[in-house]
TrEMBL record:
<feature type="transmembrane region" description="Helical">
    <location>
        <begin position="199"/>
        <end position="220"/>
    </location>
</feature>
<keyword id="KW-0812">Transmembrane</keyword>
<protein>
    <submittedName>
        <fullName>Uncharacterized protein</fullName>
    </submittedName>
</protein>
<feature type="transmembrane region" description="Helical">
    <location>
        <begin position="174"/>
        <end position="192"/>
    </location>
</feature>
<feature type="transmembrane region" description="Helical">
    <location>
        <begin position="226"/>
        <end position="246"/>
    </location>
</feature>
<feature type="transmembrane region" description="Helical">
    <location>
        <begin position="87"/>
        <end position="106"/>
    </location>
</feature>
<keyword id="KW-0472">Membrane</keyword>
<feature type="transmembrane region" description="Helical">
    <location>
        <begin position="112"/>
        <end position="129"/>
    </location>
</feature>
<feature type="transmembrane region" description="Helical">
    <location>
        <begin position="29"/>
        <end position="48"/>
    </location>
</feature>
<feature type="transmembrane region" description="Helical">
    <location>
        <begin position="60"/>
        <end position="80"/>
    </location>
</feature>
<feature type="transmembrane region" description="Helical">
    <location>
        <begin position="6"/>
        <end position="22"/>
    </location>
</feature>
<feature type="transmembrane region" description="Helical">
    <location>
        <begin position="150"/>
        <end position="168"/>
    </location>
</feature>
<keyword id="KW-1133">Transmembrane helix</keyword>
Length: 250
């Protein structure tokens, strides 16, 4: 199948299904589902198909930096969502995301240390995360909101994968967990249901990053030994298992 056609069909389908999952099961479960490697895993797959397996493996170190920045995005959006509307909240969260990415990229930590730091940061963030002051409000739905979400997420993926050969594996990896789906979910939850809904959804996403980070970490070790399908398949099962456990603990 043509890769462009795959991008134009796979990514919007993922966004639509995650959106429907949130509507059916609520922010926490929806956030856990949304944190699975649907978009970032697809981006890694496109890196491998377009730039080669070595490029994809090298990008994983950068992805750890990107996850650190993503956690900062989620925490900062949740904190400022109570004070501001979605646009200033999003801009503040993007600024803090960028600062985190730049700092950790400068430190150039090895993969194992980065993995441990990300897991520690997730746990710390869950303890610092603001609690909703009330149950999320029953939200109105904008006309064509699912197609809008699908279009925004697909555009981001096309840009990131299209620039991969220019950015190189490190910055391509950093941008792999860029809050594409996260931003879409946060904005729509915040706008349609209020800050409490955004907080619940983002907390669920952060919870799911324990499994998602493990998924990417395992790719660095398994992709050299196994086919892409086998490596991704085994890691997705482990990712899902971790999400189930985390969902019961928190």
């Amino acid at each position: 199948m043509n890769l462009l056609l795959l991008k134009l069909t796979l990514i919007p389908t993922i966004v639509a299904l995650v959106t429907l999952a949130i509507r059916k099961w609520g922010g926490k479960i929806g956030g856990l589902i949304g944190s699975m490697p649907w978009v970032a895993g697809a981006i890694l797959l496109f890196f491998i198909l377009e730039q080669g397996k070595a490029f994809g493996i090298q990008s994983i170190q950068g992805s750890m930096t990107g996850i650190m920045a993503l956690i900062t995005f989620c925490l900062s959006y949740a904190i400022f969502a109570r004070k501001f509307t979605w646009l200033p909240t999003l801009l503040i969260a993007y600024v803090l995301y960028t600062l985190t990415a730049v700092v950790f990229d400068y430190l150039r930590l090895n993969l194992m240390l980065s993995y441990v730091l990300v897991l520690s940061y997730v746990v710390l963030t869950l303890y610092l995360f603001p609690s909703p002051t009330a149950p999320p409000a029953d939200g109105r739905r904008l006309p064509f909101d699912i197609p809008i979400r699908m279009g925004v997420a697909t555009l981001f993926v096309l840009i990131i994968t299209g620039l991969a050969h220019v950015l190189g594996p490190n910055w391509s990896g950093i941008l792999t967990p860029f809050p594409i789906l996260t931003s879409v979910l946060a904005i729509f939850s915040h706008t349609l249901q209020g800050s409490n809904a955004a907080i619940v959804t983002l907390r669920g996403l952060v919870m799911g990053l324990l499994g998602f980070t493990t998924f990417l970490y395992l790719q660095a070790h398994w992709l050299p030994e196994f086919s892409v399908a086998t490596s991704f398949g085994m890691a997705v099962v482990i990712n899902a298992f971790i999400n189930v456990v985390v969902g019961k603990i928190w």
